[in-house]
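Risk register update: the risk of archive-format incompatibility is retired. Evidence:
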Amino acid sequence: MIIYILGDNGASAEGGLQGTLNEISSYSGVEMRWQDMVKVIDDIGTRKFDNHFPVGWAHAMNTPFQWTSRVASSLWRHAQPDG
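Archived output:
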């Protein structure tokens, strides 16, 4: 029996390399600096921000799978012409 599950669940990488205080900013290509975010560290995770963790944490939370939520399956990549 072979079971193949394809889905878009798991941790996502919208936070960029350093994380972000506003998840939507990644769609605009805006990356926040950790030096700016640490100034409001006590408010991160509250209603004041729509924060998102850094991409490294997304990969760690998706272990043992190698991709994040935007790429639901590593098999998908290998099926692409350039993969």
